[in-house]
Structures are given as C-alpha cells and as structure tokens.
C-alpha cells in the first residue's frame, strides 16, 4: 500500500535543501552594496593592471585533455567496489572487471590515436 506520510522526511529534506540556497542568494542580493564604477568593472589580476582583453580563446585540445582525464579518473573509482568484494563475488566479478578494464583500455587507445592526449 502506497502511503504518502512515509515520505514526510523526504519532502521536508527536499524543501529545506531547496530553500537554503534560494534564501542565501536572496539575502546576499538584498544586503550587498551595489556600487558600479570603473574599478568595480575592471578585471583584477593580483594587483597588476590588466593588459589586453580578458576574453581569450583557448584551444579545444585543453578541454578534451581535461575531459579524458576526468572520464578515466572517475571510471577507475568504479573498480574499488569490485576490489573490496572480490572474494565474495568470485569469478563473475573478475570477468566483469576484466571486460570493464578492456573497455577503458580501448577508450584510452582511441583517445591516444585521435590525439586527445597531446598537450601542445
């Protein structure tokens, strides 16, 4: 039987966790001083006067390098539960982990051949 009162804690947590950031932004918007001027609108770089335009275009290669790093870094975290429960799960977990690592190696070789790992 589906009873709504069993979800009271969930709804309270959802409402409170949604209200706190909204209230923080509203309070900071009301209490913060608003002063616009040339000093406020200039870009600040360690006390040195900025030279040139602040909007520089970076090559997409840097973003691709970061994305490949994040993907492989996060995917290796998934190997930890397999390693911790390997003695309980047995051979099937080893085969699954082996297939997973093969897919990661295939992705790494693909990224390497496409040049995503070249820094310059």
TrEMBL record:
The chain crosses the membrane at residues 12-34, 62-83, 89-112. Its main location: mitochondrion. It comes from the Eukaryota. Keywords: Chloroplast, Membrane, NAD, NADP, Plastid, Plastoquinone, Quinone, Thylakoid, Translocase, Transmembrane, Transmembrane helix, Transport. InterPro entries: NAD(P)H_OxRDtase_bac/plastid (IPR023043), NADH_UbQ/plastoQ_OxRdtase_su3 (IPR000440), NDAH_ubi_oxred_su3_sf (IPR038430). GO terms for molecular function: NADH dehydrogenase (ubiquinone) activity; oxidoreductase activity, acting on NAD(P)H; quinone binding. It is found in: Mitochondrion membrane. One of its GO terms (cellular component) is NADH dehydrogenase complex. It is a multi-pass membrane protein. Pfam families: Oxidored_q4. It catalyses: a ubiquinone + NADH + 5 H(+)(in) = a ubiquinol + NAD(+) + 4 H(+)(out). PANTHER family: NADH-UBIQUINONE OXIDOREDUCTASE CHAIN 3. Belongs to the complex I subunit 3 family. Core subunit of the mitochondrial membrane respiratory chain NADH dehydrogenase (Complex I) that is believed to belong to the minimal assembly required for catalysis. Complex I functions in the transfer of electrons from NADH to the respiratory chain. The immediate electron acceptor for the enzyme is believed to be ubiquinone. This is NADH-ubiquinone oxidoreductase chain 3.
């Amino acid at each position: 039987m589906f009873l709504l009162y069993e979800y009271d804690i969930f709804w309270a947590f959802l409402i409170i966790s949604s209200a706190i950031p909204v209230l923080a932004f509203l309070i900071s918007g009301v209490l913060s001083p608003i002063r616009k001027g040339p000093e406020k609108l200039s870009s600040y770089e360690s006390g040195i006067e900025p030279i040139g335009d602040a909007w520089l275009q970076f090559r997409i290669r840097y973003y691709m390098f970061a994305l490949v790093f994040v993907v492989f870094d996060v995917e290796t975290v998934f190997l930890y539960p397999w390693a911790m429960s390997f003695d309980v799960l047995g051979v099937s977990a080893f085969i699954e982990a082996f297939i997973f690592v093969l897919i990661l190696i295939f992705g790494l070789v693909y990224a390497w051949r496409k040049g995503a790992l070249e820094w310059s």
